[in-house]
Amino acid sequence: MLTLALQTDSRGVTAVLADRPKGGSVRLAGYATVERAPSAEKLAEALRAALPKLRGGKAQLAVALGPEDVRVKRLAVPPAPETELPPIVALQAARDAAADVESIVADFSPPQAGQEGAPTVLAAWASEEALAFWREVAEDLGGRLAVATPRPLAIAPSTGEGEPVIFLARAGDSIDFVSFAANQPVLVRSAHVGEADAQRELRRTLLALSADGVEAPKVLPLHDDLIPGEDIALSMWPETSAADLIDATAYDKCLAATGLAILTARGDKPTINLADPRRPPVAETGRRRQVLLGAAAASVIAAAAWLAYDRVAQLDRQISEKQKEIAAAEADVEAFEPYQSKVAEIEEWRQSDVNWLDELDRLSQKLRPAPLDAKDFPVASDIRATQLIATAMLGGNEPGGRIDLTAVARSSSSSELEARLRDGNHPVEPISTTETPAKDEYRYKYTALLRVPPDTGVVADEEPADESVNEDVEGAGEVESSAGDTDGQETGAAPVESVEGSLDEEPVAKPDEAAPSEQTNEPTEDAPAEVASDSEEASS
């Protein structure tokens, strides 16, 4: 039977056709890339034109969905049997997507055995409208939609055989990451990087895994150019799938579609499959038995009147049984009510979940947008942070958190600092300015309150990586802990991070002069916006 696997990325739709004769091994029969058509019918026509073998038979369809069609996020769930998790996960996914639960389709990887703390699942969901589009494509090709999964899951040739591993591969101008621990996926993400290498995004992925308590995984790039200096073979699919690859390198640019075609052709399914998601077990209603009993009773009544009494007795017994079933169902509904409060608590916690790493990275770039050794460094408008207090808002009316910032500058105008910090997601409350009597050129002290939004969990819409950014963060400024100001914290706020620092380093005043090496801790290009500090450590 033919298997057609598709992957969506910045290039359009890439298709890989696989065939597996009875008793034979998987054989790749061709691949092609077409533009994503506005309708399912036109896309099916384009695929038939690009792959002539599709015209002669039916093919089951498998789709590796890009981040524009599917969202993946780790969700906390109450301790419950796995069979009861599908509606709970679907409800949380609908709340996260701000959509009706009937308008999305969600699936998940079960919680890991022996997981510490509150159980979590790796969940993925897509709109019913998006999945309906791919079902129509499958019907136009004469088949059915067998698999729909996040694109990074399709690149994994194995689950690591128990040891933590992370696979990464290119998909258009993005990099896909998928990590496994104890044979279960623990992280799935896509990052837009353009033509840059994947080292920066790999470090961010490893930091996210470390924050989730996953030990350092073995890194397995599926392309040679992803991690410079690493001598890693191309795709591991030929070794693990027993597929008859005509030319493995020909499919190197569409590993997600290739891996999904091989997996589906051999009859396997990925851990998360939105085409056939996990559902609660269907309760036996006994409808067939009731119909047969009713027919038998009608026949008996028609045959002899004396059986009427027996039939009435049978109906009474059935009513009693149904009443017991109704009472049991009402008890189940009452037992589920305690979970509502837990869901509300989870939602309240989610509103305070701020990605502090991204927020601090943004703040450092806003405060000092150019490296100190830049020839055109704006000395006159330079701003130096001296204290930062990061606070997550728990139980308040405003989601996210706040950053109380104290900085010093050469200029007495606060408008430039306010313009740097403010955007649509980061409102800035009025800034106060004071002048210190010291003779230091940085004698104007500013204090500002910056609101930060909660983390939405979207990891796919990353900014393109700058090729000029040096990935070494040795020059990133360190901040020194202090007892600084705590004024302005709101009632109900839970402090997340309070950091004070003093920057003794002066920016380069002349383009052609370099600051003395013993006084300058120059930030590298990988951290152009972080401030430099003589401090040895940072405390939270």
Q: What's the mean pLDDT score? A: 76
Q: What is the domain tally?
A: 3
Number of strands: 17
Q: Return the string of H and E elements.
A: EEEHEEHEEHEHEEEHEHHHHHEEHEEE
Region (Disordered): 419-439, 455-540
Organism: Botrimarina mediterranea
Protein name: Competence protein A
InterPro entries: ATPase_NBD
Describe this structure in words.
- This is Competence protein A.
- InterPro entries: ATPase_NBD.
- By secondary structure, the protein is of the alpha+beta class.
- The protein has 3 domains: 189 residues, 2-Layer Sandwich (Nucleotidyltransferase, domain 5); 61 residues; 145 residues, no CATH class.
- Helix content is 28%, strand content 24%.
- The chain has a 5-stranded mixed sheet with strand order 3-2-1-4-8, with helices on both faces.
- The C terminus is likely disordered.
Tags for this model:
five-stranded mixed sheet; 540 residues; ATPase_NBD; Competence protein A; Nucleotidyltransferase, domain 5; globular; alpha+beta; five-stranded antiparallel sheet
